[in-house]
Amino acid sequence: MREVVIVEAVRTPVGKRNGGLSGVHPADLSAMVLTTLAERTRLDPGIVDDVIWGCVSQVGDQSSNIGRYAVLAAGWPETVPGTTINRACGSSQQALDFAVHAVMSGQQDVVVAGGVEVMSRVPLGAAKASGAPYGPKALARYDNFQFNQGVGAEMIAQKWGLSRSRLDEFASLSHDRAATALDNGAFDNQIVPVSTESGVIAVDECVRRGTNVDKLAALKPVFQDDGVIHAGNSSQIADGAAALLVTTPDRARELGLTPIVRYCAGAVTGADPVLMLTGPIPATEKVLNKAGIDLPEVGVFEVNEAFASVPLAWLAETGADPALVNPWGGAIALGHPLGGSGAILMTRMIHHMRYNGIRYGLQTMCEGGGTANATLVELSA
């Protein structure tokens, strides 16, 4: 198998619901990161073997293989194909894995992975509106439980003994870290400014400065009257896109490109679909075993903050250092544009690794249906 590297990673700002990016069609938003990726690497798009694009709600503006229409919107040659995949919230992380598999196997040499979700235009759950996606047999297997991520997040909090105050402390920390990263310009080199009719959007919009436990305590639980999960300790509905350029070290040298990270290992696993969001725990163990790396060797973790109970349960089970988890904040503060989030997290993580000289980084993402991806990368010398 060939070695695989990521040589560039870019993302749009993450726009809040009905915010600065809401007027941009998802194909056009995707095209902006594809265009910038080619410009920054001086890449001839014609040599790209495939564009693998994650998107969750593939209806309306995001239907009909948005990965292909992103390529066309970017003005890339018609010979460049594109495909769209859905592994729920991990869609663009899986897109990266599929891109790596193609290059690693020798079937392709240069692949772009990424994803998009403009939730302002295609609301959460829009794909379920006209049907019953789970089917009677799957529902019957679980006593007709109506699969629900928020209910699963409540069950996780109960199982791991996570109090409302503990969840809110974590949520407040996410906002604090994201605000500090913004103030320090940590995201500047990875963000693609987006021109809109209302002006240029160049900064993540979701961060709520001054968030604290007292303010969060005023919010009502969403999924249970006596519950602990509410809007303030959950990921924010958001808009965004990201793209990563994947190739081999030899091809990168031929193209005059310097890799950022080497792909070490990837894993995907299933878990209890009722709890639904615990998959990152076994996925982390699986990817570390595949790579032959011990958890203390990892210098940064991106654990998607779908709900605060998810990374907190992950921390309790893995014993990782909390200071190394989501150091620039996570989806509670920065938003979670579903199909784009995997690529956005990877973009944030590998830039953090480069800025701070961190050797290993691990990203993991809980996903609807009870699956999870985990990816381990190593900073290139």
From TrEMBL:
It comes from the Bacteria. Residues 4-248 form the Thiolase N-terminal domain. Pfam families: Thiolase_C (PF02803), Thiolase_N (PF00108). CDD domains: thiolase. It comes from Rhodococcus oxybenzonivorans. Residues 258-378 form the Thiolase C-terminal domain. Belongs to the thiolase-like superfamily. Thiolase family. Keywords: Acyltransferase, Transferase. The active site is at C89, H336, C366. The keyword Acyltransferase applies. SUPFAM superfamilies: Thiolase-like. This is Acetyl-CoA acetyltransferase.
